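Budget justification aside, the reviewers requested a transparent look at the raw inputs and outputs of the sequence design task funded under Objective 1. We therefore reproduce one unedited record. The lines immediately below are the structure tokens for a 523-residue chain.
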């Protein structure tokens, strides 16, 4: 016997409601084990691998790469083998030991042992309860935030307590309709066909599926040349070698339809991943009259950034102050530290240390505004600083944060900043690392720009931007000189403080950059 388990997409972070399916690590028909990674998904915060809480054979994959799945939606169906050590049906006995209901006999004298399963509700015993508890504890080390859900197993039928006599009318024996569709233990081909809808059920070889996936062949549109429509390796190879006329479709295996497909598709070229080709010439923009080349869905990290920035602009009455800073002394200090040393903190790490010192002096910028249901608001202060570092990645802008940054030296800050930006660019930063900042430091100077009125990373109340450090003419002691100059820009929430506080913090950081030796003696 076997049973099907459906694994629902769990909440992979702090209240996340959806995730984009990036890729599958398994295919229909594969045998998987508990905690084996089955898929890679991208949330609004990071890209994570999802492990399976079940072991068995993959029966169905609920989603395609690029599709956005809601939390709680089926992700994968797994066929689990179930060992049955006792008969499913046992006669109910009375105090005298006689069976209450005699099994009906056929004309040949063989008893029919298929009673209708819906006549008497099963009674759970201590053994059945223990079985359920054992089942709940059987998932091993699963992803944080979810475990193996219980209650999906088939309850065992047990003897009714003695003395509970009830009259049960004999029921005509008909095949009972099971609550969960069982997968019959026949050959592997019939197993897959019963669990997978459409023509994908005619694929049995993991090698064939992998080959099709790597070359972009849509198995749902490909007829098989094997027995019963089974898709063979040669079918996929023929589709790969055939000229492509439409994304996800070929003329291989469609005798007499090649011209039809060409007429329908015309001269369209394959669309870029994540975009959808617009029809031409009808697909024109009503406002500009230009042909629309593609449409790219806003999802994943880009969707999260858009939502956060929109909320920030709509809720926060922001203001911006900026100042040009002579960073020559800081640059020279770092050069001196590099003499005879292999590892020296970067300039951003020193600035981060100055920022944490400034936030201790001006704690109003290290807060958050909370609005109650009745509309009243509170300014929430924190005992500590989680310094967010804005990092540009292939998936968009993310802000991992250095926890308890005020307790770290410049060297420790440098190591943590490098680690966080590296894992963020790989898409491996945890939700806690990406969603717990209290103040953001944005080094947009790496993009070759001098300044920017940045948008505050909601629900924080301030963000400090650092521009590029370049040679500029600067007056020193009444004389014109060439100095290393950068621009600092502070955007702040005017609800938590006024311009005097913001200017005081900005001037504190600027003075520390211009005279680092004087400040380092105090921090």
């Amino acid at each position: 016997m076997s049973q099907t388990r459906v694994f629902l997409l769990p909440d992979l972070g702090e209240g996340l409601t959806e995730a984009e399916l990036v890729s599958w690590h398994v295919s229909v028909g594969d045998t998987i084990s508990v905690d084996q990674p089955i898929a890679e998904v991208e949330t609004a915060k990071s890209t994570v691998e999802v492990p399976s809480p079940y072991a068995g054979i993959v029966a169905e994959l609920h989603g395609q790469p690029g599709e956005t799945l809601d939390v709680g939606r089926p992700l994968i169906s797994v066929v689990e083998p179930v060992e049955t050590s006792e008969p499913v049906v046992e006669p109910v006995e009375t105090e005298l030991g006689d069976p209450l209901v005699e099994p009906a006999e056929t004309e040949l004298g063989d008893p029919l042992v298929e009673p209708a399963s819906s006549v008497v509700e099963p009674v759970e015993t201590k053994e059945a309860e223990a079985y359920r508890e054992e089942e709940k504890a059987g998932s091993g080390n699963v992803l944080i935030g979810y475990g193996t859900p219980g209650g999906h197993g088939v309850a065992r039928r047990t003897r009714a307590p003695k003395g509970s006599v009830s009259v049960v009318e004999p029921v005509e024996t008909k095949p009972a309709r099971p609550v969960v569709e069982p997968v019959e233990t026949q050959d592997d081909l019939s197993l897959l066909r019963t669990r997978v809808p459409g023509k994908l059920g005619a694929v049995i070889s993991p090698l064939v599926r992998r080959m099709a996936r790597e070359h972009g062949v849509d198995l749902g549109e490909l007829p098989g040349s094997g027995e019963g429509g089974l898709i063979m390796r040669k079918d996929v190879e023929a589709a790969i070698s055939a000229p492509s006329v439409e994304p996800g479709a070929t003329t291989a295996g469609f005798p007499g339809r090649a011209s039809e497909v060409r007429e329908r598709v015309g001269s369209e070229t394959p669309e870029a991943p994540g975009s959808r080709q617009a029809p031409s010439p009808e697909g024109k923009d009503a406002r500009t009259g230009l042909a629309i080349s593609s449409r790219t869905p806003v999802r994943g990290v880009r969707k999260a950034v858009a939502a956060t920035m929109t909320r920030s602009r709509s809720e926060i009455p922001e203001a911006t102050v900026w100042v040009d800073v002579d960073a020559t002394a800081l640059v020279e200090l770092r050069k001196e530290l590099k003499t005879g040393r292999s590892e020296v903190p970067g300039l951003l790490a020193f600035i981060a240390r100055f920022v944490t010192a400034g936030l201790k002096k001006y704690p109003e910028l290290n807060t958050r505004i909370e609005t109650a249901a009745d509309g009243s608001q509170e300014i929430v202060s924190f005992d500590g600083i989680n310094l967010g570092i804005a990092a540009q990645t292939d998936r968009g802008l993310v802000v991992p944060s250095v926890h308890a940054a005020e307790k770290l030296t410049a060297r420790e800050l440098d190591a943590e900043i490098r680690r966080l930006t590296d894992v963020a660019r790989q898409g491996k930063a945890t939700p806690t690392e990406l969603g717990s900042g209290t103040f953001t430091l944005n080094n947009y100077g790496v993009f070759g720009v001098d300044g920017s009125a940045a948008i505050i990373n909601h629900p924080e109340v301030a963000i400090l931007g650092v521009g590029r450090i370049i040679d500029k003419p600067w007056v020193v002691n009444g004389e014109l000189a060439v100095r290393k100059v950068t621009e600092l820009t502070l955007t702040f929430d005017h609800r938590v403080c006024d311009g005097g506080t913001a200017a005081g913090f900005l001037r504190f950081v600027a003075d520390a950059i211009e005279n680092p030796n004087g400040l380092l003696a105090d921090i």
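Residues 34 and 53 are 5 Å apart (CA to CA). Confidence is low (pLDDT under 50) at residues 103-128, 130-169, 173-201, 244-281. Computational costs for records of this kind are itemized in the attached budget.
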